[in-house]
Design brief:
single chain, 49% strand
Amino acid sequence: MDHLELRLLLDERAITAVMNSYCQAMDLGQHDRWLDCFTDDAIYEVLLPNGATYQHSQGRADLARFIATYPVLPGHKHVYVTPVFDVHVDARTAEVSSYWFMLAGDGSHAGISSLGRVLDFFVSSDGRWRIKERRIVTEGIAQAK
């Protein structure tokens, strides 16, 4: 394995850690940890299945307002799977596409409440990878029972 291959693997691992931290911080109500996943000028967008915008935030202040009002619900978990990385080692940027789903449950019921795709643009500065742009496309929402 040469230096470039090693750098690529380490970058992918660091980006995955940011993606995992995003999910856990959101689910646990750890707002500062969640905000730390983003650059100060980040763009965050969530689209509904019909294409309507559910959330659009730009910059740290907007992101802070959004996460401060995001409900932390027991049994609700964000999960990201099958990430595909396109890391530009020399430029210190990366595009990542992945699928996501939301688990919802309580003591007697559990299931997937929504799912879709995520398109991310990451940048690395000061030795840390962060999300510069995140576009969440919701493709399905379970009907309430």
